[in-house]
Amino acid sequence: MRLLLKNTKLLQTKEQLQTCDVLIENNRIIAIKTDVESTTADQIIDCRGNLLVPGFIDVHVHLREPGGEHKETIETGTKAAARGGFTTICAMPNTNPVPDSIDRVENLHEKITADAKVRVLPYASITTGLQGETLSPITELAKQNVFAFTDDGVGIQTADQMLSAMRLAAKAGKAIVAHCEDNSLLHGGVVHQGLASERLNLPGISSVTEAVQIARDVLLAEAANCRYHVCHVSTKESVRVIRDAKRAGIKVTAEVTPHHLLLNEEDIKDADANFKMNPPLRSEADQEALLEGLLDGTIDMIATDHAPHATEEKALGFLKAPFGIVGLETAFPLLYTNLVKTKKVSLRQLIDWLTIKPAEAFQLPYGTMEIGKLADLTLIDLNSSEKIDKQKFYSKGKNTPFEGWKVFGIPKLTVMEGKIVYNNL
């Protein structure tokens, strides 16, 4: 089976676009030329001059299955990923049951094989049941094709436990991925401790709650010689700690979400729980530090932290609603519109943060568009615009603070291993 993508635009050096055809045979790219003869293909798609890039990679996604199917399933979450241009997503382990044993990981792989529309790389948990008490069998689980180890949603509270986990992960050649949060500093917070918490009279979460665990963990990672990745960085203090750790040669990488790049606490006008996420939207100074950290390489990549919840759950208000927002279907259009079109970053930088950078950090064979490579590709319309409409989401989750935003850069076609998984041309 040969698929020919005609009339695409490929991004060249100096941000120039060049018209090219891309020929795919089975699951790999076999030609990238100015003009490929149509007679060589079984199926031809006219890409209408839209931008073709490597399929996006998201290392932080919540698919909720098993146990939370009313929020999301592997099928609906991966359909949402395909619509957003993502061909590889990494599924967090805060499910019920938690993937903390060989049997549970095997069952999860079977479900992914049956239902996933894009590539899903599952995490396993650092501790059994995400309870922070007993380490999962990290050495054994590492042999079960898990992506990495994390207790995302909760921080590992003791240095001894984190060090032990890092030593086991390092021996197994896997990364430790951390949601950094010191529970002793939380005090029931639901929003950043600052302007919004004061104005809305809500308990706040201080910046040090996150940064203090990162500071601890980078030193532990150095001692264990472990690859360590920081989830959803949100504060200027965290950026400073990670920058210093990188300068010291510690093997640390980090991600930032679209919502922390594009919003801050001043965007919370009322107690709308669609603005409730963990970590919370921070100050404008924090927001500026996050972009600076991306631009100077302190932060390596962008990840959505796609966290779907049922509408009735989010309707409970700031104090009782669960943390999290959806992001797979809106990430690229929001970032392109608000960062690239405003000339804060280049198109090449944005694409790299969503493709080659996560692939390099986690040693994945994806994120590039070259002859002989797997055909993971995303076609994007940079010119036409639309308004974000949560009712059109493929995700079960409609919990977004970006409803009604006008965006450009709409994914139109997603190809994963040569197979069309989304088409809206």
TrEMBL record:
Annotated binding of Zn(2+) 1, by residue: H60, H62, D152, D305
This enzyme's EC code(s): 3.5.2.3
Residues annotated as the enzyme's active site: D305
Coiled coil location: none
Catalytic reactions on record: (S)-dihydroorotate + H2O = N-carbamoyl-L-aspartate + H(+)
Pfam families reported for this sequence: DHOase
The keyword Hydrolase belongs to this UniProt entry's keyword annotation: yes
Cross-referenced InterPro entries: DHOase (IPR004722), DHOase/Allantoinase_Hydrolase (IPR050138), DHOase_cat (IPR024403), Dihydroorotase_CS (IPR002195), Metal-dep_hydrolase_composite (IPR011059), Metal_Hydrolase (IPR032466)
Protein name (record): Dihydroorotase
Species per Swiss-Prot/TrEMBL record: Tigheibacillus jepli
